[in-house]
Amino acid sequence: MTRETTVVRIAMNGVTGRMGHRQHLLRSILALREQGGLDLGDGTVLWPEPILLGRREYALREIAERHGLEHVSTDLDAVLADPSVDIYFDAQVTAAREGAIRKAIAAGKHIYTEKPTATGLDGALELARLAREKGVRHGVVQDKLFLPGLRKLKRLVDGGFFGRILSVRGEFGYWVFEGDWQDAQRPSWNYRAQDGGGIVVDMFPHWEYVLHELFGRVTSVQALTATHIPRRWDEHGKPYDATADDAAYGVFELDGGAIAQINSSWAVRVNRDELVEFQVDGTEGSAVAGLRNCRVQHRGTTPKPVWNPDIPATEAFREQWQEVPDNGEFDNGFKAQWELFLRHVYADAPYRWDLVAGARGVQLAELGLKSAAEGRRIAVPEITL
Fold first, then answer.
1. Arithmetic mean of pLDDT, 141-158
2. CA distance linking residue 208 with residue 220, whole number of Å
3. How far apart are CA 146 and CA 197, in angstroms?
4. What CA–CA distance (Å, rounded) separates 297 from 300?
């Protein structure tokens, strides 16, 4: 079969940030180039050609030179006006994302973006409407669905392992240093509400698609938020007041009757096997899944613990679980979703993680914050355009 190479020019906005640089540029787009492009299976090979966009030209040029790339720009409008640019990707800070995506849609570019897609539900829905009206393809990063641990968990769900699913318990987080005596691992804007920060805005969109895709649509949310660390130090060593929530404790009712409880915190020290873990309990079995691993305990092998606080525990509970095998190769989750989106744009492959799905995540974060502010459980209406 004759192979034809098609160059795909991708405007990548926000590659100087941690996520945009590591996961999207290095481990996705450059990894695709290292493997010789993306073979569509019909004789066409897609060759991604990134245009690095951002505000700091010196930082963009340093990245470009390090990786042998040619194209950098600080002029979003000029890049979007270039008819040879096919796709616009956004990994900027949340507050800057909505306006840039609007411009990209108006320019007729296909859209692939990090989440949240906007700072509010109205804006997120408007982006979805505009993209639909313009006829451009659009996708939202939902990376955790492609992690090995959650792919194993999905395999169990699809195979009926759990029977009737009763509950999902999630624990996410780690200690983010305040920035005074050790540098913080996250940018300071994450802790300022006025800059679009906060763990609810950041993580509830993740929990929405994980719950939606694996267990059922979220039908209600009840959340309690906190700013456990009220004073932090920024990248220049300057103290500032943390105005955004750094922890959130959420309870989610799911379509079908299961209950999910997920704790998210940047002020917790890790005492679990991975930075995020989900325990799923069902009538026929249970599982605990993290980023990479998944363990199960079937009904037929479930032990019979007896509560007795007067004697030491005699059972090694963790040893009573069985590891789920890989049964296949797992690529980087970000890269895997990039490949699916590119196939969607250039081979008309199906793709459901679009701007409407992104709007559901924004909706859940918005209602989660409302629930915390009002101290009540709030129904989550189904989104329709």
1. 96
2. 11
3. 25
4. 8
How far apart (Å, rounded) are the C-alpha atoms in residues 309 and 246? 34
Compute the distance between CA of residue 361 and CA of residue 357 in angstroms, rounded to an integer: 7
Rounded to two decimals, what is the model's pTM? 0.95
**CA distances (Å), origin 319, targets 138, 152, 323:** 44, 19, 10
- CA atoms of 214 and 292, how far apart (whole Å): 16
Let me know: does 24 contact 12? Beta carbons within 8 Å: yes
User: pLDDT (tens digit, 9 = 90+) per residue, 272-331?
Assistant: 999 999 999 999 999 999 999 999 999 999 999 888 889 888 888 999 999 999 988 899
| CA pair distance 107, 384, nearest whole angstrom | 25
Handedness of CA 33, 72, 51, 139 (dihedral sign): positive
| pLDDT, tens only, 77-98 | 999 999 999 999 999 988 899 9
